[in-house]
Structures are given as C-alpha cells and as structure tokens.
Design goal:
GO molecular function: 4 iron, 4 sulfur cluster binding; aconitate hydratase activity; metal ion binding
Shape: globular
Number of domains: 3
Organism: Mangrovivirga cuniculi
Family: Belongs to the aconitase/IPM isomerase family.
Largest sheet: 7 strands, mixed, barrel
CATH topology of the largest domain: Aconitase, domain 3
Number of strands: 30
CATH superfamily of the largest domain: Aconitase, domain 3
Strand order of the largest sheet: 22-25-26-27-30-29-28
Pathway: Carbohydrate metabolism; tricarboxylic acid cycle; isocitrate from oxaloacetate: step 2/2
Catalytic activity: citrate = D-threo-isocitrate
CATH architecture of the largest domain: 2-Layer Sandwich
Length: 754
C-alpha cells in the first residue's frame, strides 16, 4: 500500500511550477538535486540563486524517519516543543536494540523482554503524536523506508546517517540529529547549507562478480571519508539506468561513508518497477506523469563539467569487485590485488566470520545473488569454513526469501539467520569467540568498519564487500582467495571453482508478508498518556540547557585534546551503550571514552587539572562541572564523522563542555553541536592545534561580538604562566547564533510556540 498518498500528490502537483521558476531565476539547466532542493524550499525562504557551500537555506522536508536508538532522545525533545501532533508524516523503527547472538527468533524474544520499557515508551509517544510505529522485528529503518515511504523527487530527513539509502528511489534523503527532526516535526524549517554537487557518470553495465556495492566502494576510494563533505552526489548515465533500484539504494547508503550530505539517482524504469512490486503502483503512475522533472535536464548530463563542482566517471563494464578496509571504509582494493595486500600488510589471512545483510545490502536481489553462490558451493561439495550470518533487511524481504527457499540454502551451508535488525553492523553482536581481544579478520556487506565498530575488539580487521564476495570468502575461510580465478578443495578432495553469482532483481511471485510489523497511530492522541518512571535507568525526561549569559566564556579547562580520528563512535559508543540512549545522564558516562588523548596516547585517560590525577573523561568532566568550571574539547580533522547520533553533542553539553575546537568538522556533528547551544570552532591556522597544552586554561575574549563570518579569539594560559592567542573560525549564521543565545535550538522553538 502507498502511505501518505495525498502528500505525494501535493508534492508532484507543485513541483513542475517550482522547478520552472527556479530555472528562470538561475537561467540555466538544472541538475536533479537542484530540482528537488528548489521545489522543497520552506514557505519563509525567498527564492534566490543560492551559492553552493555558502548560502544557508530553509527547507520543508516531506517526512521524518527515526530509528529506536535515536528516536528516544528526539521524542523526549519533541515532548517539550508544545505540539499536539507531528507536522509532517513521521515514523519510528525499532531496529537498533536487538542484539545478535543465537538466531532471529530467540534474539528478538530477548530484545522484546529487555527493551520493553523503551518499546512501550516509543509506541505510546508515537500513538500520541500521530507517528507511525514499526515494531521490533519489522526491519531495518532504511529498508522499510525504501519499501514503503521513499518516492522519486521527495525530500526526507532521518535520525540516522544512512537515511541517504532512500536516494535509491530518487529522493534527497539526509541523515540528521534528533534536534533537526524535532524542528521539522514541530513545523519549523530545516536549515541546510546549499550543497556542492558531485556528478558521477556511470557508463557500461555490471557483469559477473561485480555488483552495485563495488560502485560505491570504488567511489569511496576516490573521494575518501571526507571527499564528499558538504556535497550531494548525483549519479547519472546509461550505467545508472542499468542498475536495479535496490542497487542504487546500496550506492546511496554508503555515500554516508564519504561524508556526502546525500546521494541520489534520477527516476527511471527500475524505480517504477520497484514501486509497482512493493504495491505502490499509484506512486509510479504519478511519477510517470512528471518524469521529466524527476531527473536532471538533458543539457546537464551532456556537459556535466559545466554544472557539477566535480565529475567522476566509472565504466561499469570494466569495474572490478572491491574490498575496502580494514579500519576505514575508504581503503579500496580491487579483488585482483587483495591477496597481495593481505600478505604485505600482515592482515590475518584466516577469515573467522562472514556477515551479509544490513541496511546496505539486504534486498531480494542481494540475497538471491549470495544464495546462488551458496547453492553452487553446496552442489560442488563445499561448506562454509568461516562462521556465516545473514541479516534480512525487513520482514517483507525475510518472508519472501524464506518462501522462495533462499534462507534454507544459507542454513544448509551452515549459515545463521539473524533478526531483521542492525545487529553486528552497529556493534549489537554477542560474538562467539574464545578471545575477544585476538587479532582476527571478518568480512561484511555492511557500510562501516571503524575499529571496534562490530564487536568492540580493536584488533578485529573488518573488511567491506558485496554480499556475494562475502559469501565466497566465508566458503573459502581465507582472505587470500579470489573467487574469480582460484579453486577450492571440496570434501571429496577435488579442486572446484565457484561460478559467477546470479540474482533476481524482484521476486517473480511478488513480495509477500503475513505481518509487516506496522502500528498506525491513534487518530486523536490527546488522551494517550506517556509515562516515564523517574527511577528508570533507561529513560529520563529532559531539562532545558541554560541560556548564554551574554558574557565571555572564561576559565575553561582543557578536557581532552583528541589525537587523530575521532568519530561519533569515539565520542559516544554504541553497542551496550544503546540501552541508555533515552537517559542523557547515564549515557554521558561513555563521553569521549574512545578518543585518544594526545598527551599520553591512551583512551579514556585525561588529566584532572584540579586533582592533578588521571581519570576517565566523563569523571573529569563531572568534576569540573561540579566545581562550576567550564571545559573545552580539542580535536583533529573531520571530527564527529560517522553516525548522526546527537548524543555525541548532548553529552558534552550536559557535562559542562562549552566549546569544541577542531581542525575540521563532519557536517552532521557540527550541526548537532549548534543545535545543543554549543560553540563549534575551527582553527584558522591548523598549526595552532600544537599550541594546546595539557594544563591549559582557555578564555574566549571577544564572544560579546559573536556574529556571522567574524572570527573568535581564544587566549591560552599555560601552566608556566605564559600565554598564546589563537584565532578560530565558525560557520554560525544569525539563526544559529540565536540557538546559542537561547541555550539550544529547542529552547528557541519552545519559546516561539509559547
């Protein structure tokens, strides 16, 4: 069924006129990205020829999606906004709190019991405020969105960085923090700096072992984890049209790993077929009627260098399967060179676990391609030498592939089917191991592979590849195996070769499901009570942050000077900490515990300037806060890359950190800091990072003249009494400065609603 069809009709009715006005204003052909952005300007936003990477623009997204880990804090904030119902169609998806351990049924049963308090809270809040609720076991948010809500030419935001998956159906879908979601659900505009545009021209056609996953693995190697920052990536060309809709989703999904705001594809036949296959023929018919507006203008694609800030071209016919990692998703190695890399870098050759599925690769096509490899392996007398797990993306996919016999194929190979949830991809994995610290290798079809991401072990070398490559490696149990060229010895001692995978894009019998797991909200939620136990360790009602007092922030103690990569996983770990996502004080006990202290090269060990002793980061922050002393965090490049989790901004704010000063920010995290009333600053001279010493006390000396584009000056007082002055930059506009003054964006919304 098509959800929110009236909203989609309204978007399509107004879209052609809005696009034409924008085209006349800018006086040139438009990319697809520009068409969607210009047709989603907020009512309060004047139409202008916006300057890429400079203009702040107010948008009106069509919908909001939240996963259960981030929805808790988002909805706790929304409860303070003074609204009776969400202003736009919104959904909650219970996918993050289910730990993978034994298998789907038992793991789901355990999660429902362990997380009952949280699920009941999310269900009741959703019921009260008109929000659709997808129960635990229904599936991973991004797969469920693609199957039910995404539509070509639409705009959505979601409280998860892989919201970008919906770009596979031609949307501009952006991962945001919960505070952004609260704004939109409260009827406020959503602000975004007008993005740069990266065009990726795809020619040729995939074949053999190469899949859509290899496109984004290749792009990640080209652009690196920060090459897409501040940009939307638009894919086009005959190669793009040859890809399946879910293959496009895979490419867009992992665009989060290059720092891109989002990625998208123009509307084509594969999207129409997917919409019809998922019982949304009405949406396909509507899209067909305005299809010229749901892709970039022909002149753009004919001369892309003229319209995009950067253009990359990839010939799919020549593209080789890739394996990315370890420890970063942008270390891209072609399959033909991978065995050599393994040996030269002394990576553990024995593969311990292969994991397929996740929000990135759990479509019907993905499962059938991987299953074809497994089935042929069994026919040739082979079984998996590595542990092997399968994570379906939704109950609809799981039910359908079980009906069609594919899950049985994996189980016969020795595979274990996990619940329709994120599981090992986000560290929700009770891994079976005799030594949780041993140096080892795993390979997944997931999207992220930072150290400790999957199992908490810093010595786990995690590699990323397509589901079919992962399946082949799991059968071999050896990272030096190349399924395109090498043979394996079967149980009879014969040398056999795996054939190329074969998949089915969409189920011939159609998708099927008995219970998709959806709960519609009450038509009138005014009588629904939302109860939070004041003694709960998992849920805590929020208190507003203090407004700025108008004075310079002085006497700040250096809390930590983080060295090197500091992702949101380093700032606020997932895994077991997910249970505290609705309790700000309790989850703050993980704040920056994964960051490396520049001064002693250790994690979770910083100097308490009051006692002179070393202690955990949260303990030292709490000590400073108790003494009424503000603190500052200093970081390196791309600080806060990774997940959209706003807890990484709320925790420092809660524990008394007033300023985060870094060489550069990841986009979502910088916005999250601003939303929580914090100062996010960057060094004007990156070498000034070296001037920050362990015992520094830091003053801001000109905050009283805080204004857009105006640098802020910091005075460093060192332990020996000497001083340094450094200049810092910021990207705050007038509206964001008002957030800072009010103490948070939510404080401002509440004041305006009152």
């Amino acid at each position: 069924m098509a959800f929110d069809i009236d909203m989609i009709k309204a978007v399509y009715e107004s879209m052609p006129g809005k696009i034409e006005k924008a085209r006349q204003l800018v006086n040139r052909p438009l990319t697809l990205t520009e068409k969607i952005l210009y047709s989603h300007l907020h009512n309060n936003q004047p139409l202008e020829n916006f300057e890429r990477a400079k203009s702040y623009v107010d948008f009106a997204p069509d919908r909001v999606a939240m996963q259960d880990a981030t929805a808790q804090m988002a909805l706790l904030q929304f409860m303070q906004a003074g609204k009776k119902q969400a202003a736009v169609p919104s959904t909650v998806h219970c996918d993050h709190l289910i730990q993978a351990e034994i298998g789907a049924d038992k793991d789901l049963e355990k999660a429902k019991s362990n997380n009952k308090e949280v699920y009941d809270f999310l269900s009741s809040v959703s019921n009260k405020y008109g929000i659709g609720f997808w129960k635990p076991g229904a599936g991973i948010i991004h797969q469920v969105v693609l199957e039910n809500y995404a539509f070509p030419g639409g705009m959505m935001i979601g409280t998860d960085s892989h919201t970008v998956n919906a770009g596979g159906l031609g949307m501009v879908a952006v991962g945001v923090g919960g505070a952004d979601a609260v704004d939109v659900m409260a009827g406020m505009p959503w602000e975004l700096k007008f993005p740069k545009l990266i065009g990726v021209k795809l020619t040729g056609k995939l074949s053999g072992w190469t899949s859509a996953k290899d496109v984004i693995l290749k792009v990640a190697g080209i652009l690196t984890v920060k090459g897409g920052t501040g940009a939307i990536v638009e894919y086009f060309g005959e190669g793009a049209e040859s890809l399946s809709c879910t293959g496009k989703g895979t490419i867009c999904n992992m665009g989060a790993e290059i720092g891109a705001t989002t990625s998208t594809f123009g509307y084509d036949n594969s999207m129409a077929e997917y919409l019809r296959s998922t019982e949304r023929a009405e949406v396909a018919d509507l899209a067909d009627n305005i299809k010229e507006h749901l892709t970039g203008d022909a002149e753009v694609y004919a001369d892309p260098e003229k319209y995009f800030d950067q253009v990359i071209e990839i010939n799919l016919s020549e593209l080789e399967p890739h394996i990315n990692g370890p420890f970063t998703p942008d270390r891209a190695t072609p399959l033909s060179q991978f065995a050599k890399e393994v040996k030269e870098n002394n990576w553990p050759e024995t593969l311990e676990v292969g994991l397929i599925g996740s929000c990135t690769n759990s479509s019907y096509e993905d499962i059938t391609r991987a299953a074809s490899v497994a089935e042929e392996a069994q026919a040739k007398g082979l079984k998996a030498k590595a542990e092997f797990t399968i994570t379906p993306g939704s109950e609809q996919v799981r039910y359908t592939v079980e009906r069609d016999g594919y899950l049985n194929t994996f189980e016969n190979m020795g595979g274990v089917v996990l619940a329709n949830a994120c599981g090992p991809c986000i560290g929700q994995w009770a891994r079976h191991t005799d030594d949780p610290k041993r140096k080892n290798s795993i390979i997944t079809s997931f999207n992220r592979n930072f150290a400790k991401r999957n199992d908490g072990n810093p010595n786990t070398h995690s590699f990323v590849a397509s589901p079919e490559i992962v399946t082949a490696f799991a059968i071999a149990g050896d990272l030096t195996f190349n399924p395109m060229t090498d043979t394996l010895k079967n149980e009879a001692g014969e040398e056999v070769k795996l054939p190329e995978p074969k998949g089915i894009e969409l189920p011939i019998k159609g998708f099927a499901v008995e219970d998709a797991g959806y709960q519609a909200p009450a038509k009138d939620g005014s009588d629904v009570d939302v109860i939070v136990n004041p003694d709960s360790e998992r849920l805590q009602l929020l208190s507003p942050f203090d407004a700025w007092d108008g004075e310079n922030i002085t006497g700040m103690k250096l809390l930590i000077k983080a060295k090197g990569k500091c992702t949101t996983d380093h700032i606020s770990m997932a895994g077991p900490w997910l249970r505290y996502r609705g309790h700000l004080d309790n989850i703050s006990n993980n704040m920056l515990t994964g960051a490396v202290n520049f001064f002693n090269e250790e994690t979770d060990s910083v100097k308490d300037q009051i006692s002179g002793e070393y202690d955990s980061v949260p303990n030292v922050a709490r000590h400073y806060k108790a003494e009424g002393i503000p603190s500052i965090v200093v970081g390196d490049h791309n600080y806060g890359e990774g997940s959209s989790r706003e807890h990484a901004a709320m925790e420092p704010r809660h524990l008394g950190v007033r300023v985060v000063l870094v060489k550069s920010f990841a986009r979502i995290h910088e916005t999250n800091l601003k939303k929580q009333g914090m100062l996010g600053l960057t060094f004007e001279n990156e070498n000034d990072y070296d001037k920050i010493l362990e015992d520094d006390v830091i003053d801001i000396i000109d905050l009283d003249s805080f204004a857009p584009g105006k640098p802020i000056t910091l005075k460093l007082t060192h332990a020996d009494g000497s001083t340094d002055t450094i200049v810092t930059n910021h990207t705050y506009n007038e509206g964001q400065i008002e957030w800072f003054k009010a103490g948070s964006a939510l404080n401002l919304i509440k004041k305006q609603n009152a």
